[in-house]
Write a structure and sequence with these properties.
It is built from 9 helices and 2 strands, in the order H-H-H-H-H-E-H-H-E-H-H. The protein is mainly α. A two-stranded parallel sheet has the order 1-2.
Length: about 210
């Protein structure tokens, strides 16, 4: 989980997916409308510090200012404000909570509202719908952004509590990222006993079905 080769592999995968989504002119901008009977898969990609200005710069670089990125051409296109509850400059915890739950909160809080109550995340909603879930990060899995989808903690700096909830909740089917140093041998064993496959390199990852 904290292997340098592994981390670089994850970053490479994310970059390839991002650039293909942004710049591939061969992909059609469809007007697909989902119906209640569709079995949809949702992949949420979060670009750290990515706002409208960053999207505009990506358009200028990839296709020119008079063209559109694929992500801008979609018929289903929405935005979300990620400021904190005080309308101030947000941090990763408050902004990820806004993305994960639709609720504004104070800086530092992870999937907990301004009243100190846990709020349901879209990952937890997916579980209620019987969907498989996964969280992939190019940073540690206990970082505020990935943690906001898996845990509910008053302080983003309470890493031990975040790790405890990840291990004990066992509500995510696939977890990929760094941060092995905070997981005890017993916690890794507990996750393996619960059916997780524990891998630390690309070869082992490729062997997982």
């Amino acid at each position: 989980m904290n292997n340098k080769t592994r981390t670089r592999t994850l970053i490479f995968i994310v970059l390839i997916a991002s650039l293909g989504f942004l710049a591939n002119k061969d992909l059609p901008a469809t007007s697909y409308q989902p119906t209640n009977g569709d079995n949809l898969t949702v992949i949420l990609m979060i670009g750290d510090g990515m706002g409208f200005n960053q999207v505009r710069m990506g358009r200028y670089v990839e296709v020119g200012k008079n063209e559109s990125l694929i992500m801008e051409s979609s018929s289903l296109n929405h935005s979300v404000m990620t400021h904190n509850i005080n309308l101030g400059i947000t941090d990763s915890a408050a902004s990820a909570t806004a993305l994960a739950t639709g609720v504004k909160t104070y800086n530092g809080r992870i999937a907990i509202n301004s009243d100190g109550e846990s709020v349901e995340t879209i990952l937890e909603k997916a579980l209620e719908m019987g969907k498989a879930t996964g969280v992939l990060s190019t940073t540690t899995v206990y970082h505020a952004t990935p943690a906001s989808f898996m845990t509910h903690v008053l302080s983003r700096n309470n890493y031990q509590e975040i790790v405890r909830q990840i291990v004990e909740n066992k509500n995510v089917d696939v977890i990929m990222g760094g941060g092995l140093e905070l997981f005890s041998v017993q916690q890794i064993t507990n996750m393996a006993d619960a059916g997780y496959s524990f891998v630390t390199n690309k070869t082992a990852l490729s062997a997982i079905s």
